[in-house]
Amino acid sequence: MILNSPLLEIKNLQVSINNNKILQDLNLVINKGEIHAIMGPNGSGKSTFSKILAGHPAYSVLSGDIIFKGSSILNLDPEERSHLGIFLAFQYPIEIPGVSNEDFLRLAYNSKQKFYNKPEVDPLEFLTIISEKLELVKMSSLFLSRNVNEGFSGGEKKRNEILQMILLDSELSILDETDSGLDIDALKIISNGINNFMNPTKSIILITHYQRLLEYINPTYVHVMQNGKIIKTGCAELAKELENKGYEWL
Amino acid sequence: MVNQSNKVLNKDITKLVNQTYQYGFSTIIEKDIIKKGLNEKTIHLISQKKKETKFLLNFRLKAYKKWKQMPEPEWAYLKFPQLNYQDVIYYSAPKSQKKLKDLSQVDPELLRTFEKLGISLTEQKRLANVAVDIVFDSVSIGTTFQEELNKHGVIFSSISEAVDEYPELIEKYLGSVVPIGDNYFSALNSAVFTDGSFCYIPQDTVCPLDLSTYFRINDQKSGQFERTLIISEKNSQVNYLEGCTAPQYDTNQLHAAVVELIALENANIKYSTVQNWYSGNEFGKGGVYNFVTKRGLCSGLNSKILWTQIETGSSITWKYPSCLMLGDNSQGEFYSVALTNNYQQADTGTKMIHIGKNTRSRIISKGISAGKSKNSYRGLVNITNKALGARNYSQCDSLLIGNLSNANTFPFLSVQNSTTKIEHEASTSKIGEEQIFYFLQRGICLEKAVELMISGFCRDIFTKLPLEFAAEADKLLTLKLEGSVG
After folding, report:
1. Which residue segment(s) compose the domain that A110 sits in?
2. Quick check: is A250 in a domain?
3. Predicted TM-score (pTM) of this structure
4. Per-residue pLDDT tens for B356-377?
5. In chain B, which residues have their Cβ closer than 8 Å to the Cβ of A103?
6. CA B229, CA B429: separation in Å to the nearest integer?
7. Chain A residue numbers touching B453 (CB-CB < 8 A)
8. What is the dihedral of CA A74, A75, A81, A86, to 10 degrees?
C-alpha cells in the first residue's frame, strides 16, 4: 500500500438489483482521517450504497470498482471485508433471538483475532475488554446478557452498533442513519462515542437526513446523492443550506 | 429485491443443511424372515416363532381384528401415498440357532454394525453408566449389564424375554396405557410387534444406571414394530434413553412403535429420544415413515413423567408422547425439538390429560423447518372436571429457515373446571437473510452464525437432556442443517 493513498476509492460504480440500476457512475475518494456525510432524499440509494460496500449478496456490480486499502474488494465475501476493517452500523439493527449479546460480541471479536492469527480470548478476558468499551457508550453491563437487539429500544440498538464499531476497531465505518430515532441525550452519547473513536488513521461515512447530527460531528465533506449518483459535493456549510432549502433547488 | 437476495442466501442455506446421512449403510447378514404381507396366518407364525403364550397370541389377534376395521387416520398435516401394508415384511431376525448366553455369541458382523454406529456393547458403556438394549430389525440382539441391574432388582431385558420370564407383569401392564384399539398404528403394532425393551424398577429404587435402547432398521422391506414397556414402582426413579438409525434406501420403510410408561406413587420416569431415522434424500425419495404412539401414565400421588425428544430424522414423523395424570399432584412434562429439512414432514406434539387434583403439566416445543419441509406442532391439553387446581404451561416456538419451509401450530385446549390455570405462548421466527448478513458483516462466518442461532433457539430443551445426549443433540442439529443456510 502506497503511503497517503486513499483508504477507499470508488470508480465509476454501476450496480443493479433485479435488472434495475440503482447506482450509476458513482465516484468517491475517502482519505484517512476524513468524515464524509452523505445526504439526499428518500430512495436516492444511500442505504443501498452502504450495503454494497459491506458486500450484501443481493446486489450485482455491473461495472466499476471499489478499492479498499489499495486493492479491489469486489470479489471479497462480507466477512472478509469486515476483517479488513469495513464496518456497517445498520439503519435497522437486526434482532437475533436466543443469542446473547455477550456471545455475539465475543464471537465477532474472536473471528477477527483468528483472521489476523492472533490468540482468541476466553470469556473472562473478553469481559475485561468489553466492560471498558461499554463505558464509552454509557451502557450497563446488564445488557450483555440480553439477546442481540431483542427488545432493545431504538436508542439502545443504535448504541449497540456504535459499541460494536468500537470493539472491532474498524478503519472505515459506515453509519447508516445512526441518528434517526434518537432523543437529544442519546444523540449526544453516540456523537461523543464517534468523536472519541475517530482518529487520523480512520474514516467515517455518515449517512443522514438531518443537519442535527452534523452539529455534533464535523464532516470533512458533504455529498448529496440523488438517483444513485452524487450530484453535489461541498463542505459542512452545504448541509445547512440543504436544511433550509431542501433538495429541490439542486 | 427480496426475491433475488433470498435466492442467493437460500442456495447457501441449502448447502449447509444438506449434510449426507452417515448411518445409511446396511449390513448383509443371514436372516430369518416371514414372507411379506399381513393376515391372521402371519400373526400365528410370529407368535409361533417367538414361542408365545396364549395370552399374547390372543392379544395380537384381537388387535389385528380391530386394526382391520379401522381407517388410516387422515387428520394429521401430512401428505404421503397410500401405504400398502401387504408389501411389508413383519418379521425379520438375524439368524441364530439358539438363545444367546452372552454377547460373545452374537454374530460379529452385527457387532461391527453397532461399532460403526458408535455403539459399543462392551465396557465403554459401563464407563458412561448406561445399560443398553439393542434392537436390530425385529429382535433384540443383546442387553448389557443385566446382572448388575439384577442386583438392584431392576429388570432390563428385551420384551420377548420378559414375556417368558415375567408373564404376570406383562399381562398386567401390556396395553394398559395404550389400549389395543387406541389408534390405527398402535393396533397394528399390537398385532405384529416383534420385540422391544422392558424395564421394571422395583419399589424404593433409584435405577443405578441410565437405561438405553438402540433401534436399527436394517432390512429394506421390513417394518419395525417395537414395543417398550417401562414400569416404575412406588418411590422409584429411572432415566431412559432411546436412539434410532436406519440404512439409506430409496424405498420407504415403516416404523410403528408403541411405548408405554407407568409411574406409580412418587415414581419418576425420564424418557429421552434422539430420533435419527433416515429421512430420505434431498428430493424426498426414501426415508422412514415413523408412526409412533408413546404414552405415560402417572397413576399415583406425585408421579412424574418427563418426555424429551430430539426429532431430526424420518421422512414422516407422526408422534405425540403424552401423559395421563391420574394421581393427585402428578406431573407431566414434554420437551421437544423437531427439525425438518428437504421434503421431511413432521406432525408431532403431545397430549396432557389432567384427571387428578393439582396436576401440573408443562410443554415446551421447538420446531425448526428448513428446505421444503413441513413441521407442525399438535397438542392437546385436556383438563377434566375432576382435575381441580390443575395447571398447564405451553410454549410453542417455530423457527423457519429459507422461504420454502412451513411451520404450523395446532394447540387444542379443553378445560372443564374453573379452578384451572393455563398459559400458552407461541412464537414464530425466521433465520432470514438480513440476520445472516448481520453476522457476516461482523466477521462471523455462516456456519457459526447458524449454529449459534439454532442452539440459542433450542437451549431450553438441551438443558433437559442427559449430559451425554445434550452434546450429541447439538452436534446432530448442526450437522442436519449443514448446507441449508446461507
Report:
1. 8-245
2. no
3. 0.77
4. 999 999 999 999 998 889 999 9
5. 452
6. 38
7. 96, 98-99
8. 0
